[in-house]
Amino acid sequence: MDQDAIRRHLELARSELEQLDRERDALLAMVHADEELLRLRGASQGSLGLVDDEPVVTPPPTSTVKGPSFRGTLLRVIQDAHGAPLHETEILRRVRAAGADTKGRDPLSVTDLMCYSLAKRYPIVKVAARTWRWVGEDAEAER
Questions:
Q1: CB atoms within 10 A of CB 99
Q2: What is the distance between the alpha carbons of residues 22 and 16, in angstroms, rounded to a whole number?
Q3: CATH: 2.30.30, 3.30.300, 1.20.1740, 1.10.10. Which one for 64-143?
């Protein structure tokens, strides 16, 4: 693998780790909420394994970026184009207009890498250099 391929792979891995961290935080919040509901409803500590002396520690947020996820917004942008090819600069412009952004040093490369990643699971194809389009059911039949 050349250095650029390794960097793209690293960026993809970091992106997926961020998504997993967000899911972990959401699951932890659900667990803490359920524990609090059980406490409020008077469940016995012994049956729940809960100890009031130990505070519930919520981990700090893993990301300082607020707002919609970059990945989800990017997917929606490509899908909303209904099969029209979009260059990464236009994709990034639309993603940012929707309120999402990336903390990556090179947002255009992150956009292209994310498109590549999404194409593994969704009907997205690369039609030219750094240009992607949706080929799913709702894409226009005749392009």
A1: 10
A2: 10
A3: 1.10.10
User: C-alpha distances in angstroms, 143 versus 30, 132, 140?
Assistant: 45, 14, 6
Identify the residue whose tokens are 């970026």: 65
**Separation between Cα atoms, residue 125 and residue 97, nearest integer Å:** 23
* Separation of alpha carbons 61 and 29, rounded Å: 12
Mean pLDDT value of segment 64-76:
83
What is the C-alpha radius of gyration for the chain, rounded to an integer number of angstroms? 20
State the virtual CA torsion across 4, 19, 60, 36 in degrees, nearest 10. Answer: -170
Q: Distance between CA atoms of 92 and 110, rounded to whole angstroms?
A: 9
pTM of the model: 0.53
Residue 142 has pLDDT above 50, yes or no: no
| Per-residue pLDDT reduced to its tens digit, 15-60 | 888 888 888 888 888 888 888 888 888 755 544 555 454 555 666 5
